[in-house]
Every structure is written in structure tokens, then in C-alpha cells.
Amino acid sequence: MRLRDKVALITGAGSGIGRETARLFASEGAKVVVTGRSAERGDAVAEAIRAAGGEAHFVRCDLSSEDSIQELAAKSAAQYGRITSVIMAGAATATHTGERSASILDLDSAVLEESIATNIRGLLWLFKHVLPHLVEAARPAEAKTTSIVTIGTSGTRNGAPGMPAYFSTKAPIETMTRSVATEFGGRGVRVNCISSGLIETESEMGAMTPEFREMVLGLNALPYFGNPEDIAAACVFLTSREAKYITGATLCVNGGAAF
Fold first, then answer.
1. Which of 80, 166, 224, 245 is catalytic?
2. Residue 102's pLDDT is what?
3. Mind listing the domains of the chain with CATH numbers?
4. Which of 51, 75, 144, 237 measures 20 to 30 Å from 247, CA to CA?
């Protein structure tokens, strides 16, 4: 119950890393606002958390729209009276062989625009609209902080073929994290980033060729891929009191791929 006093807003919580993070936060005692584009998937995640004895509520949000993000922040704060924690797991993604994946020579303007709108502009709008709630909930003089965790990717260091839009729009996340951490630390908000390696989610593994899988695994110091629980556990740590003196940091959870 390390998060029993937390109200956590988790984007991208309809599947993969976001879904597992929502489940783990609830099991650690947090009240969870599940959000994503799909009401069907998001409602299912919230219902599963409630069935397991946790507290969760779904709010639909399109991270490419500032209006939708502003509404998300307001509804989340109204649902549980405050917001203390935000996990920014939602993103416009691309996989090696999926529809959105292409060589730079075949880059599609619609894919690029969606990646920019969600992964860059959307993240900045999310910071803008949740930070006032986090500042209000923080008690910095007592070292009782609120927290944001962003999810980056180690692929921005190592690169990979066929994913220029995704990696180019995920790379600024660490800079955003440090910038906001510097500005809001004095107001009691900690902001950290997790640099994720390749994680065995349904979307990633389902679209990956055996050859690409072997190539990526060869970059790891550890001889296996991570799973969503690995990222979720790191999010719990960075949100908990155990990390109360950590801000502006990037934690690599990637099997050693970014040494």
C-alpha cells in the first residue's frame, strides 16, 4: 500500500504499459483515473480494477487535442477531489512492421503530424493542465510532493530502422522532464522520466519480425526483453515516498540497452 494516499491519472491506460501501471497503482492503494482513446478498453480496465477491490474511473481523452486534455484534467480532479500523480504513458506509437512504420524515404505526412500532435504537443498540453492540480495538492515545506512520470524510449539513443517519426517525437521527452522539474520543484512537484527498452506488449511483439526481434535483443546486456510490469514497478517507485528526493532524473529500464 505504498500509494494509499495517491490519486493517479494514467494516460494510455487501455493497454500495455499504461494498463499494467493502472492495475499496479490500484493494488498499491492509489485511486486511479484510467484514460485513453478507447472507451471500451478503458472501461474494461477500470472495471477490472474495481472487481479486484481497487478504485478506478475511466475518462476518455484524445492526447492530440488540448481541449480534450483540459477536460481530462478537470474531470480527474473533480472525480477524487485532487490529483497527486500523473503517469504519461500514452503515445502515438510505431512498430517495425506495422502500418505506421516506414523508412524516412516513405514517411507519411499524416503519421508525422499525429506523432507530433500526440508525443510533443500533447505532452506539453498535459503538463500545462495537470500542473496546477499537482501544485495545489503538494505540501513542499513538509517534503510531501506530488509527482509526474514521463515514459521515454531508449530507442532515441540507439535508433532502429523504420521508426523515424516515433523516435524523433519521443526524443524531446527527457528535455521536457528536466525543464518542468527545474521550474516546479520549489512548488513541490517532482518530475522524472523512465527511458524504456523494448517491452513485450501485444502491439510490439505482434508486429515484430523474428529478425528484428533478434537484432534488438542483441543490443541488450540482459538476454531477455522487459514486460509491462517492469515499467509499472519503476513508476510506483518514482511516485512513492521512497523517491521523494528524486526529480529531473531519467531512469533507464531497458535491460542495459543504452549503456
1. 166
2. 64
3. 7-253 (3.40.50.720)
4. 75
